[in-house]
Design goal:
Largest sheet: 3 strands, antiparallel
Radius of gyration: 17 Å
Structural class: alpha+beta
Oligomer: single chain
Number of strands: 3
């Protein structure tokens, strides 16, 4: 029997934003931009090759971060560069790609979601922080599902 992966997105409105989250976002943006520069100079489109060539250096430089932040940053940088190359072929992109958004890609090792309690526990360099969110009706359909990336 073939298995299939279903990808859905859910928004969670946070009750309050705790201290230290801005630092995590800026550090992540910095890492992704370093990786994009590396990918751009070396013309790498493979996430596996990018991770193989840069992971250990970034682990030493950003020792306070959990390793999965660097892993997901490699995924994001490879995806951004692939998209950039497609757009450049269509003459819709100029210069070097730059990551400007305040986004962090999380995998299932970096956060724990509890729909019943209405909290997300997020791993940060300063330990786990608890983010409370307002429950929504559509969150109920995710109760029995395994959460992957966020």
């Amino acid at each position: 029997m073939p298995s299939e992966t279903i990808k859905l997105t859910a928004k969670f409105k946070l009750k309050e934003i705790p201290e230290g989250l801005d630092e995590l976002f800026s550090t992540y943006r910095e890492i992704v931009n370093l990786l994009i520069t590396y990918v751009y100079k070396n013309n790498i489109t493979s996430f596996i090759r990018l991770k193989k060539e840069t992971y250990h250096g970034l682990r030493k430089e950003y020792a306070e971060l959990q390793s999965h932040y660097i892993y997901t940053a490699c995924q994001m940088a490879a995806a951004i560069y692939k998209s950039y190359r497609k757009r450049k072929r269509k003459r819709k992109a100029n210069g070097k790609p730059v990551f400007k958004r305040e986004v962090v890609m999380l995998d299932d090792y970096l956060f724990k979601l509890s729909l019943k309690k209405g909290v997300v526990k997020l791993s940060t360099p300063n330990g786990r922080i608890v983010l409370e969110f307002y429950p929504a009706k559509y969150h109920e359909k995710f109760a029995s599902w395994r959460v992957g990336q966020a």
